[in-house]
Amino acid sequence: MVRSAPFATAAASIASFLVGMDVLIVNVALPTISRDLGGDMAVQQWVVDGYSLLFAALLLLCGNLADRWGARRVFVCGAALFAAASLFSSFAWSMGALVLGRCLLGVASALILPASMALINETNPDPKRRAWALALWGAGGASASAVGPLLGGLLTPIHWSLVFAVNVPFCLLVLGLCTRVTPSPRRAKRFDWVGQALALSGLVALIAGVIEIGALGIASPAAWTLVGVGAILLVAFVRSQAKVRTPMMPLGLFHVRGMQVALLIGFVMIFNWYGMVFICTLFLQNGLGLGAFAAGLVFVPSAFVTIAGNLAGGRIITARGSKFSITLGLAIMIAGFLFEFCYPSPIPVWAIATGLSVVGFGAAITTPAAAGVVLKSVDPAQAGIASAMFNTFRQVGGAVGVAVFGVNATFLPSLTMALRAVFLASALLLALILAFELLRWRDR
Q1: Which one of 10, 62, 94, 247 has the fewest beta carbons within 10 angstroms of its own beta carbon?
Q2: Which secondary-structure segment (H or E) carries 131?
Q3: CA contacts within 13 A on the Cβ side of 347
Q4: CA–CA separation, 19 and 174 (whole Å)
């Protein structure tokens, strides 16, 4: 296992980078793509949301598959599908074909992400080595937020297809590294078909409803119908898990205090971050008049600070433990949001970049610590599904954050007020999570 560890960590970190980059890189290219392939605003939105929807909805299923079929096997399948879907998207002849390609990329990402965490867990049994591996894994995802917009801005003028084709060499590198990784054990378990169907359909309906609220507004009956159907199906899913002998999501995991803290942190952090990025982008472009690429550059300092934070986080976890790291990271994030909220109007670009960097640094310390808590809280045989639960909460939090903060912006008289509301709400939510963590969770 020790020999496999460096290759598994490298493959997982590169894959984390790819999954994160593909969320962002297409945004810069979308106006050029629409000029070539056509399509109205709704179709363009589904080029972005088709990826996010399938990604979030399939995480639980794919985490379950990683536990049953083996993390390495599922991870390799995800990387191969990611390469194939990227090639398909780069040769898309219509917007419909591109949406299909993006949906396939979402499926591939759902296969990759929980399997990558499970692969790190099984190849790094020593807690110190695992903390460093998770820090590198987090740094891979963090670097995507800087590289994605920049790479998209550089490749799109050559041809928009390159923003998808650029994934292929990375996928081939990941697949090459996996040949040096020890195969994961397979575990024979009954497959919970009813639970899988309820979870998948419930998450699809819920996330699609949230996306439509963000697109159509809070008064949309169709969007709220989807949210309601999704909520009913997810309640039915939870009830079914209490009755079956081999549930796909053991409800006992929710009773573990470390898991409770990690899941709430995952949801709230991405809820705040995605919502903040969405409103900041609107403010920079519509409020300050920056172009899309110039607005993307504002986020670059935070991305590099986040990479440094992930690497520092590995040292902090090793030296002081997960609880200290999470407490410190949350406190830094709260300070960053309060700095943004308290800065007098008009808010300059440098102040936004500084606040984003402080928040990003705190998030970088918190995320690998929370991921480590997830892996420590469960039996190794459940690492895949536990990782999937953590990442599902994160992805759903991101979708809800964009919708909630987007609707909030429509009700307030200015983007400056909307931005301040986001900063204050984010600080208060994180303060509540920090209080919950200090009161409910004891680091062992």
Answers
A1: 94
A2: helix 127-155
A3: 23
A4: 12
Please tell me the total number of residues recorded for the chain in this structure.
444
- DSSP, collapsed to helix, strand or coil, labels residue 444 as coil
Quote the distance between the C-alpha of residue 93 and its chain's center. Answer: 29
The rounded Cα 140 to chain-centroid distance in angstroms is: 12
At 283-338, the pLDDT tens digits run 876 778 776 667 767 877 887 888 788 778 778 887 888 888 888 989 999 999 99
CA 201 to chain centre: 20
Take residue 88 and report the two structure tokens written for it. Answer: 């398909």
What phi and psi values does residue 382 have, to the nearest 5 degrees? -110, 15
Distance CA 340, CA 399 (A): 23
Task: Tell me the three state secondary structure of residue 342.
Answer: helix
Q: How many CB atoms lie within 10 A of CB 251?
A: 11
Its sign, for the CA torsion 205, 210, 211, 212, is positive
SS3 345: coil
